[in-house]
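Predicting holo structure, MRU bound.
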Amino acid sequence: MAFESKIKTIEWVDNVSRMIDQTILPYEFKTVDVKTAEEMYFAIKDMIVRGAPAIGIAGAHGVSLAAIELANTTTDKVEFLKKLNEKAEYLKSSRPTAVNLMWAVDKQMELANSINGYVEDIKNALVKNGVKLENEDIEINKKMGDYGAEVVPKGATILTHCNAGALATVGYGTALGVIRSAYAKDPTIKVFADETRPRQQGARLTTWELTQDGIPTTLITDGMCSYFMSKGMIDMVVVGADRIAANGDTANKIGTYTVAIAAKYHNVPFYIAAPLSTIDTSIKSGKEIPIEERSHEEVTHINGDWVCAKEVNVINPGFDVTPHELITGIITEKGILKPNFEESIKKAFEEK
Ligand code: MRU
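Done. Tokens:
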């Protein structure tokens, strides 16, 4: 059963990509109109839009915007496709870890190259396809929500890390989609949200969107999860993913791996919720997943203020990889994939 979330994170409106500015939530709610491929590159890089499925759709819209710009400069199809391909590669370089970005941009380019028509036809097809991918994202999330809700115990307290919600997708969410669907069936369930340092997507975004929907949420800091698991206060963990390798190893926001180890130790089921577009079957294991290194200022500062000695060394990987052995199941739009993941992932793609 679907629980309607009012949040629409990214939307194609009158030939612009309109998105919620996630850098200023929860202090201010504002949308931004992204009008060019270059603006889209920076919207993704600077995390105005973030979360794997949402940046996938942003990439698809980015190709549509590039097509609109280029169609104003040339009617030569060969030149148009060459320049479009350059813009597509540029968009893909905005962030390295979430594979949905590459997936969606490549989908757009496959379409562009397959059209037997004029530049104008390619442009129109890309715009239409961007909107189609946008609408499909919500449908996929609702399917995942339904499958995931089946494994949520009655009255459960669910821990989540980062924001894998409506704000990380077009709407409804992956991990938070599971929580929304479970809550629609059982309003006694509760959520514990990790703060998620350094950018605090859990504190700033997850608590914002869950409280909007009236889902009971408790904010904890990242180091507290083992403590609450040891007290028997967490019944299950559900998180999203940025890239899943063919063997099930999963990259997600930094700190996810720590949660998975704690969950294994305390016998708490640990689930990933992600669409098949997050699974990168071209890589065998998590060792091959590129991990983004982000600005050191995210660690040294909070809200613009220094929080450490100015001379200290800093490292800031944005993601970590949870080994597949720690994962109970991967909730997808095709059902819940179980270990052996190499086999269940292969099967899910064969049935696609
Ligand atoms: O750096 P972010 O905020 O883009 O990282 C987001 C995450 O790690 C999410 O958990 C992941 O993208 C899944 S979103 C459905």
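The longest helix spans residues 119-149.
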